[in-house]
Amino acid sequence: MLQPDSELQFLKGVGPARARLLAKLGLATVADLLLHFPREWQDRRVVTPIRDLVPEATATVRATVVRTRVREGTGRGPRRVLVLSDLDDGTGVLRTEFWQQRFRAEQLVAGREVLLSGRVTWDDGPKMAQPEVETHVDESGERIHAERIVPIHPLTKGIWPTGLRAAVWRALEATDAMEDPVPRRLCAERGFPDLATALRSIHFPDSFEARDAAVRRFKYEELFLLEVILARRRMRHALEEKPHRIAVDERLDARIRARFPFPLTKAQDRVVAEIRSDLASPQPMHRLLQGDVGSGKTAVAVYAMLAAVASRMQAALLAPTEILAEQHLATLTRWLQGSQVRLRLLAGSAGETEKREARAAVIAGDVDIVIGTHALLEDDVRFARLGLVVVDEQHKFGVIQRGTLTQKGLHPDLLVMSATPIPRTLTMTLFGDLDVSILDEKPPGRAPVTTVLCGEGDREQAYEWVRSEIARGRRVFHVVPLVEDNEELPLKSAVSFAEELRRDVFPGVGVGLMHGRLTTKEKDAAMAAFRDGRTPVLVATSVVEVGVDVPEATVLLVEHAERFGLAQLHQLRGRIGRGKEPGRVILFHQARTAESKARLRAIAGTDDGFVIAEEDLRIRGPGEFVGTRQHGLPELRVADLTTDVRILEQARDDAFALVRADPALKGEGAPVARAIEQRFGRRLRTLDA
Ligand code: ADP
Ligand code: MG
């Protein structure tokens, strides 16, 4: 009996050499091969008489070999071999050619009947180049490569479609010995085929309906395993006990609120209450804060950090860019004027001496709140008593980086903040182990922002608008995709734009320049000059995309808007409309593809980050959107987070219920625990260690 955990080299027809090739596809065992699903299926149930073949069609033919010849190529280089074979089915003659497949000469001997599948070309009669050949037409029993719905598996160099298909066919013998990770009860309740049936139907379906049922089941299975992993992570969080408590009484609450130059919004109040209860609890907080751009996530984070500091703990605020870290430092310095709270910046580009001093102060406990970039993650950054970690703009960091920072404390509380709303399916998967808070309200008094799509013809008018806004003391972001001119791309760069604006368009007006290649000093200077109005126009690359907060900015011009993603444009748009004056976003674009047009229509059509997030996921597809890998989760191969929402909900409900009922996964959950271990064991262990 073939066992699922047998190595592939022992599978009949595979052998050590092919096994090495299959290893490149990540396939080591028979079970791996069975879980290597087809990327498409061809309907080869109908055999076409040669007489009826038409050019460009993909068809299956049953015919007898008339003659086969071998032609050896001459000349230099590797020897070329061409096998030519003519076949006849009584209605006509089909010519075929095979390159570099010498064995065809022995296979296609005159008088043998075979089934051929391939694309038809025309050369004075029907012809097929490199068709697939099914020779098992005489045997009773089942056909593998023709006269059925045939699977097309993902391949690797050196592996033929027929070879792989035949191997999968043989591997099916092991299905009955394979353990189904989905409890039978759930399969029955949800109406899915069991594992053995589904494996047969996904590779060699009897009908497309059976195929669809199998695909649905494997989508469910994949999401079910993922959700079980998340449910267990969540349970582990609940079992952790932190050595500290961060309690906020009414007096402290009032003292913290008094630090903000505004009353908190209702949404901020609600989220603060959620965080307060997490902080006071014996388990560390694991919370995701979602909110649209400008909804005031910083104030919520500051509230939490001040609460931690009041309990004599240190807090760390991790930001993806130095501009943003500096801005957070400036905001906190402003809000905390005259208080005892000690702040410190730790960023990569600071001098070595400065960084050394900062690190020494942090480990000595002479710093209460550390604000930093990736530099915070380095090994030699240690804390005296880290109680709270806040990650701003979490999409710029992976799970491992988050983990690196929390490991610098003893079960510190963790608050991760997203830049923009996250589509619901992603909240249920990538962030499925976190509690979620949502800021669904913007601070009051925000003026509306209009978004317009423009072409070159509108440029003068746009510049005229900019001039009038500058005359009223406002600021303008002018975002350009490229830093410097690049011969390969027909785009004007930020550097050229800045020059042109200074010289020709806004003479006498200060025009600043900001991009990633500037030194920290230069960036600080550019940002400061923009904030205080010396350079009311700031030509910038997307480095200003995240977090930058300049309430006087009322205009955002974007060049080549088609080159930016939807979420990115929404982020950029978030740079304006932060004050009381109405804002305007002017998107210059040369969108050509349907996708980029759809993107721009979506951004102009709504200002609601939650709607945009769903739209972005729909247009880009989840593959592009975020790798599950950087979240330390298995990659989804069958399920699609844009369309499989219902299956995801079912899988999540079932997985969480299973883990609640069988937390150690020793009973009904034992097979799912074994499947998780077998399929993703090593990688998950390093993450969940
Ligand atoms: P984001 O959620 O995008 O990080 P910020 O935290 O930068 O947003 O806040 C955006 C702007 O709104 C900032 O200028 C901030 O000072 C201001 N703000 C935040 N909360 C309030 C509030 N409750 N009332 C008025 N203004 C607020
Ligand atoms: Mg922010």
Question: What keyword list fits this structure?
Answer:
binds magnesium ion; alpha/beta; six-stranded parallel beta sheet; Rossmann fold; 22 helices; 689 residues; OB fold (Dihydrolipoamide Acetyltransferase, E2P); single chain; binds adenosine-5'-diphosphate; seven-stranded parallel beta sheet; DNA polymerase, domain 1
Protein architecture, described:
By secondary structure, the protein is of the alpha/beta class. Among the domains are: 1-42 and 153-178, DNA polymerase, domain 1 (Orthogonal Bundle), CATH 1.10.150; 46-147, OB fold (Dihydrolipoamide Acetyltransferase, E2P) (Beta Barrel), CATH 2.40.50.140; 250-280 and 295-418, P-loop containing nucleotide triphosphate hydrolases (Rossmann fold, 3-Layer(aba) Sandwich), CATH 3.40.50.300; 456-589, P-loop containing nucleotide triphosphate hydrolases (Rossmann fold). The strands form 4 sheets. A 7-stranded parallel beta sheet has the order 11-12-10-13-14-9-15, sandwiched between helices. Strand 5 and strand 6 (126-129) form a beta hairpin. The longest helix is centred in the N-terminal third of the chain and has 32 residues, at 208-239. The model has no long low-confidence stretch (mean pLDDT 90). The structure holds adenosine-5'-diphosphate and magnesium ion. Magnesium ion (MG) binds at residues 297-298, 392, 547.
